[in-house]
Amino acid sequence: MEKFFSLPIEKQNILIDAALTCFGTNGYKKASISDIATAAGVSKALIFHYFGTKKALYLYLIELCGNILRDEINEKFDDGVTDFFDRIKLLSSIEISVMKKHPAMLSFLNSVYFENDDEVKADIKTIIENGQGENLRNRIAFKGTDISKFKDGIDPKLVMKIFTWLVDGYLSKVPIKTAINLDDLCEEIDECINLFKKNFYREKYL
Amino acid sequence: MEKFFSLPIEKQNILIDAALTCFGTNGYKKASISDIATAAGVSKALIFHYFGTKKALYLYLIELCGNILRDEINEKFDDGVTDFFDRIKLLSSIEISVMKKHPAMLSFLNSVYFENDDEVKADIKTIIENGQGENLRNRIAFKGTDISKFKDGIDPKLVMKIFTWLVDGYLSKVPIKTAINLDDLCEEIDECINLFKKNFYREKYL
DNA sequence: ATAGCCATTGACCGAATCGGTTAATGGCTA
DNA sequence: TAGCCATTAACCGATTCGGTCAATGGCTAT
């Protein structure tokens, strides 16, 4: 696999994104190396030259995505931010910047989470266990967050759930993730946060 | 195809749901008749005995889902309801009752909307054109709806968008749709609607 | 100029799976 | 007991699968 790493990063990314897309939309079994090769514009043989087997490529992608996500969080997340909605904005900006580098990454990780093929099921489990036990979103949104700003009778956890589903719903409806789509998403998220903040916070915190 | 219709409805539904699930999650090309047969617990040959070809089965499913959806709307939708959130509740109850009959139906219809395989692309287009031109959700939510109840500065269209994404997000995160899941969804939707109504409507309308 | 190296590929492998067919089975009816 | 019909196992040729390999061709070092 050293052969792959010595490629220019551009070319690496083309291949990675093609693989993330194919595996993410079709699952492990139904995504074929031919599909990935075609999507990446290279020959099937080249992919085997780099990764040896389909399984090795798949598992490598999982580790890679985990690392990218972790690095992005370590770099951008700021414990000093205590406002609930600022935290959510931060989290969204992390996810979006990840998707600007690898548009199919989150949907791939999601598909991995539900993958059930015997050839990779066990390996996925051990990889996930060796990584940290999340929920990423909830951990980031609630650890050290000031939720006293909410009006009485509003459940911040419900607001968080709404937000999570909302982003997932948007992304599931936009199967082709261009930079334009992601900027749109950014704007919609901002609108949404403003709407929530304005109506869910006590007046003195506006 | 008369052979299929003369089956007891239970058996018809097992086969239909298996096919909706397979086509919905894998798309036309990657969903095989063997997959569907296995999921339905019958032999592959029997499916060909009923529907002749894979394509015929697929196109039949599209028409069937369209009809079920139309019937459900005609039966349950009530023009007299003018409250925005009551309309949304009505719409959600329609979608959920449809999914209680055929859990994979909406995700199947969504996948049909994005299907791009040459073998069925053209046929899908003509079927959709012969059906009505929606957006179902928007049409139902806004035609004859009283939006003056909203506080100033709140855009009902944004609220609608949020709601749509939210439901899609929930459903995309729950790949196995049991009756229990759907009841959960129902509760969450109610919580969400109450939250929105309480905070987005002017006080005199609460 | 040329020798050699290495990324890249088309052609190929046996095995599996594809959409679809067919002959045989077996339960039901008359 | 004759016949009908739903259902299936076994099979068809074609395609695609994961994976291999020999040949190509561009690059570098001499």
Please explain how this structure is put together.
Two copies of one chain form a homodimer. With about 210 residues, the first copy, chain A, is mainly alpha-helical. Chain A has one domain: Orthogonal Bundle (Tetracycline Repressor, domain 2). Helices cover about 75% and strands about 0% of the residues of chain A. Chain A is elongated, with a radius of gyration of 19 Å. In chain A, about 25% of the residues are buried. The model of chain A has no long low-confidence stretch (mean pLDDT about 90). Chains A and B meet through α2, α10 and α11 of A and α2, α10 and α11 of B. The first copy, chain A, binds a DNA duplex (30 and 30 nucleotides) through α4.
Topology:
Two copies of one chain form a homodimer.
Chain A: H1 2-5, H2 9-30, H3 33-40, H4 44-51, H5 54-76, H6 84-101, H7 105-114, H8 121-130, H9 136-142, H10 156-173, H11 179-200
The first copy, chain A, binds a DNA duplex (30 and 30 nucleotides) through residues 3, 7, 32-34, 42-46, 48-49, 52-54.
Q: How is the main sheet of chain A built?
A: none
User: What portion of residues of chain A is helical?
Assistant: over 70%
- Specify the CATH class of chain A: Mainly Alpha
CATH level 4 superfamily of chain A: Tetracycline Repressor, domain 2
